[in-house]
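Methods — Computational structure assignment.
A single polypeptide chain was analysed. Its primary sequence is given first, followed by the predicted tertiary structure written as structure tokens.
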Amino acid sequence: MTVRSVMIGLVFGAVVPALAVAQTTTTTTSLPGGCVAEVSFSSLTCQTEALAARLQSATDLGRTKPMLMKQVAKLDADLRDGAAQMTAGNARNASERVKKAGRVLIAIGFRLRSLTGRKQIAAATRADLQQTVMALTVDVKALQKSL
């Protein structure tokens, strides 16, 4: 036996049992606020309401708080209107509303990254809000693709 065949035998001996043991499991995760992370209008609306509650209770947003609250209210209205359109059977209008919601999320993200946002909002709060907005953006894009 050569060194090469011994090495190949060791690699296959370690890899094949590991592949046999690997199992696929699916889980649903709960987000802060009791929302389930899935691609649906109800989940996105729940996440948006949790974001609005977090913004409402935050005390370190400075003068950006009213505009962020207004943008989150618009986001929530677009998602609710999209859900109503989908329920009515109008997938095209629902897709348009979801697209508008995605644009609002881009605007919120910009406001958090702007100079005013960096100066007015505490760093920890801003990072947490940016992470939440990015997660919502990913879910909105996934919902838009599924429509």
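Note: The beta strands are 30-31, 35-36.
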